[in-house]
Amino acid sequence: MTQNMTGGCMCGKIRYTASIENDEAYLCHCRMCQRASGNVSLAMKNAKKADVSWKREPDYYQSSPIARRGFCSTCGTSLTFEFPDSENMDLIVGTFDDPSRFRPFHHFGAENIHRAWLNTEGLKEIRTDEHQGLVDRWMKTVGKLPD
Fold this sequence. Notes:
The chain has two helices and ten strands, in the order E-E-E-H-E-E-E-E-E-E-E-H.
C-alpha cells in the first residue's frame, strides 16, 4: 500500500515527503556508510527520486567519485545516499517521522558486518525516562522531556 510519509532532520530545517510503496528497508554495513553515520550500520529505505519532495533541499557532500550524501548543514543529520545517475535514492530510516513501518529485508556491504551488533536481543533495556540524570537535565533546562 502506497503511503505518503514525512521526515526530516533533527532541527527541522530540512523536511521531506516520500511516497512509500512497501516496508522493505535494508542495513548497509559498508565502510563509507559506517564512517558517514559514525555507526556500525545505516538503516536505509530505497525510493524513487521522483517520489520524494523536499520542503527545503538538503545540502550535499560528494562522498565518493560515484555518490553523494544529503545532510543538514545546521544540525548535521544524515538524510540520504544516492548515485546521481540513478532514478532511485536511499532515505535514512531514522529521519522518517515514524520509522516503525520499516523492516530490514537484507544486509548490504556484508564484508564489513560487525556481528556482535546484529542480534542484541536479551540485552538490558533502559528507557530514557528511567535515567534520572538525563531526566533531571531536561527538566532543569526546558521543564519537560523531549518528544
